[in-house]
Write a structure and sequence with these properties.
Strands 2-3-4-1-5-8-7-6 form an eight-stranded mixed β-sheet. Helices cover 17% and strands 38% of the residues. With 120 residues, the protein is α+β, with helices and mostly antiparallel strands. It contains two helices and eight strands, in the order βαββββαβββ.
Length: 120
């Protein structure tokens, strides 16, 4: 199964509190990111587990955001992307699951995850 786990939005540090309040109106609650990301990200989560990652940025730009896809057949997905001419870049696994980045044909950054973090 493949599904969207989170969308990462570049957010000015001065706007993080207001963003958390905004997403709370839509049913999202704060959750702790992994220790390696706490300095640069604030996460909120809906009851179904969908997350919004607010990435601290001095200047928010469209190129710094991304969508994350859970690819349960991770290795086969990476192989299919590579065979189609879309190279992937391994990323640091955060919750014990492999991750990689790939760019869509238009240059959008896509994060691929073998599994999502455990729901909190």
């Amino acid at each position: 199964m493949t599904g969207i786990h989170h969308v990462a939005l570049p957010t000015r540090r001065a706007d993080v509190e207001a963003e958390v309040a905004f997403w709370a109106l839509l049913g999202f609650s704060p959750v702790e990111p992994p220790p390696s990301l706490r300095e640069r990200a604030t996460w909120v989560q809906a009851p179904d587990g969908t997350q919004i990652h607010l990435l601290s940025a001095d200047e928010a730009t469209a190129r710094s955001g991304h969508v994350a896809i859970v690819a349960r057949t991770f290795d086969a997905t990476l192989a299919a992307l590579s065979a189609a001419g879309h190279p992937t870049q391994p990323r640091t696994p955060h919750w014990g699951a492999p991750r990689a980045y790939v760019n869509s044909p238009s240059g959008h950054l896509i994060e691929l995850m073998a599994a999502p973090p455990e729901a909190t």
